[in-house]
Design brief:
Blueprint (H helix, E strand, L loop, with lengths): L4 E5 L12 H10 L4 E4 L2 E2 L12 H8 L1 H7 L7 E8 L8 E4 L3 H6 L8 H10 L3 E4 L17 E3 L8 H14 L2 E3 L1
Parallel strand pairs: 1-2, 2-4, 3-4, 6-7, 7-8
Antiparallel strand pairs: 4-5, 5-6
Helix pairs in contact: 1-3
Length: 180
């Protein structure tokens, strides 16, 4: 059996760059014949209102808003999974995390204050997959491959297809998982 999943999707419920409400996003992917979607809304300084920086539960509830709304439209034929696109205070890099769950987010320290080494260790110890999103986009910094499980090798918002090719070559060179 073959499955088709979108594994890097943002809702406008949570992410500033999301184009569609979670319900509409799920509807579009169902109509396109997908088996499911991973909601990887942004968990970054731009995601949260200033009041949420002082109330972790409120911040996590806000982050999960798009995912929880999308989850309401899950069916036997279409799954909705939780992921994270994380950006720390101290970087412009984005990291995709798969295998995370709601409980984990509430239990972990406020993720924005982490650094790549600690975040990589924390998530990988919990069985999550930790990747760098769009590693060759302008301004991104390449990180040590040993801190990653993989990289995103195709991102539709890249200015030049050549950057996706560079990401593919880099992933192959270091034996990293590749996502698109």
């Amino acid at each position: 059996m073959e499955y088709k999943y979108e594994i890097h999707a943002h809702t406008k419920n949570t992410s500033w760059c999301g184009q569609l409400d979670a319900e509409e996003l799920v509807k579009k992917y169902k109509e396109a014949g997908y088996s499911g979607i991973v909601i990887t809304d942004h968990y970054s300084p731009m995601t949260f209102h200033i009041s949420e920086f002082f109330n972790k539960k409120k911040a996590i509830d806000h982050f999960l808003e798009g995912y929880r709304k999308a989850k309401q439209f899950e069916t036997e034929e279409f799954s909705v999974l939780l992921g994270v696109e994380l950006r720390f205070y101290a970087t412009v890099n984005d990291y995709l995390i798969y295998g995370v769950n709601e409980e984990m987010l509430y239990e972990l320290p406020f993720l924005l204050s982490l650094y790549i080494k600690r975040a990589s260790r924390i998530f990988r110890e919990r069985g999550c997959i930790f990747l760098q999103a769009h590693p060759f986009r302008n301004g991104m910094q390449i990180v040590k491959p040993e801190l990653l499980d993989g990289v995103e090798i195709f991102n539709g918002h890249m200015d030049h297809d050549s950057r996706n090719v560079i990401a593919q070559i880099w992933a192959e060179k270091f034996g990293l998982k590749r996502t698109a």
